[in-house]
Amino acid sequence: MLHNYPVLNQNQQVNIAFLFKTQVNKIIPRIMKIRLFFIKCQKCIFAGMIWESYRRGFDAFLRLEKSLSANSVEAYRHDIEKLAAYLEDNNIAAQPQEITLVHLQDFLKWLNQNTINARSQMRIISGIRAFYKYLLLENLITDDPTQLLDLPRTGRKLPEFLSINEIERLIAAIDLSKPEGERNKAIIETLYGCGLRVS
Q: What's the rounded Cα separation, in Å, for the pair 140 and 153?
């Protein structure tokens, strides 16, 4: 059975072609966005798999080669996970060998923004440095991006010290009638006179 389609004049054909083209022009950018999204997801999944593989190898290295305790291995893993969280938060789908000094400097800024103190930052960077040394040792990377990374500065705390009166009272409290009394007095005077610290 033959269908009887209406015959369109040229003006109608132009209108239909224009509508079709407009709809296609609206759909194509959406399709491209979806396609780019899936490509990015694939990259992220692949990068995540590489990171996890390297992290498992690093864990085994720390346990078997370095004989570290489970808590120490967990602390190193936590440091690497901080870097992974930064990459994820900033939509950076980079594998360990693609991380650069700039990424790590931005990571330090990110740690600052998340109010992580300087000592914790130093520990995290130390863990990441150990991770990259492992990757170099295993020939998984050729360059170590942590090599030129500057650690945050921490304020040095002045030691607590005794006043002159406290030292005089301490020396006066020594029993000089006992044989170890002279020795103890000499030790205290040496410590104080030389400014040595006792821990």
A: 31
What token pair was written down for 70?
């489970």
Residue 8, amino acid: L
Length of the chain in residues, anyone?
199
> Exposed, middle or buried by CB within 10 Å (0-12, 13-18, 19+), for 119?
exposed
What does the alpha-carbon distance between residue 192 and residue 186 come to, in Å, rounded to a whole number? 10
Contact call for residues 76 and 130 (beta carbons, < 8 A)? yes
Instruction: Using CB atoms within 10 Å of the CB of residue 79, give its burial: 0 to 12 exposed, 13 to 18 middle, 19+ buried.
Output: buried
Q: What is the block-wise mean pLDDT of the chain (199 residues), using blocks of 10 residues?
A: 63 67 68 60 52 85 89 90 85 84 90 84 90 90 87 72 86 88 88 79
| DSSP conformation class of 66 | S
- How many CB atoms lie under 10 A from the CB of residue 116? 16
Q: How much is the pTM?
A: 0.57
Question: Across the chain, which distance is largest between two alpha carbons, in Å?
Answer: 130
Q: How far apart are CA 36 and CA 38, in angstroms?
A: 5
Q: Decide: 132 and 141 in contact? Cβ < 8 Å.
A: yes
